[in-house]
Amino acid sequence: MNFDPARHRVVPQRRFEDLKIGEQFALPSRTLTNANFSAFQTVSCDNHPIHYDQHYCQARGLKSPLAHGLQVLSFTAAGAGLFPHMIGDSLLGFVEVQAKFLKAVYADDTLYPALTVLELKPQRTTGVVTMQATVHNQHREMVLEGRHTYLLRLAGHI
Q1: Cβ atoms within 10 Å of 87's Cβ, excluding its own
Q2: For the chain, what is the domain count?
């Protein structure tokens, strides 16, 4: 048998037409640490003391520094899970993101992100997939709710 790198897949391939409204793609859970906060601060250049100064936060009634909202949103990246592997060559792009930050996230919180198919809009040669993005913490509280929009090729146009 000859090896073909194009057939080396993590999961079986699916297309836009194979997706179903309500289908959920769980992403790996992660426990945030102070090291994660420091790394994100370095990458984002966000130096607001609410993200790194314990005394600043306590003076404002917070128990400790808060995770940056964009850091929490980044845990909903589809690439952290199987969705982009499943749709493979159908994926044309990540088109839009929206998010509402519902609760504070602190170091040592464990986050459970997921993407759920909300809407499927077929077009002439492409399809638009809208997914609900959610992140819950270890207390089962939703800390983030948002939407991702992806553009996929329809079958026969790959």
Answers
A1: 22
A2: 1
Q: Which domain holds residue 54?
A: 19-153
| Contacting residues for 45 by C-beta, under 8 A, at least 6 apart | none
Nearest one of 30, 88, 41 to 65, comparing CA atoms: 41
Q: Of 156, 150, 8, 5, which is closest to residue 84 (Cα–Cα)?
A: 150
| 83 conformational bin, left if phi > 0, alpha if psi -120 to 50, beta if neither | alpha
Does the residue 1 lie in any domain? no
pLDDT in tens, 67-83: 999 999 999 999 999 99
Inter-CA distances, 24 with 21, 48, 78, 117, 119, Å? 9, 35, 12, 6, 12
Residue 158: per-residue pLDDT? 62
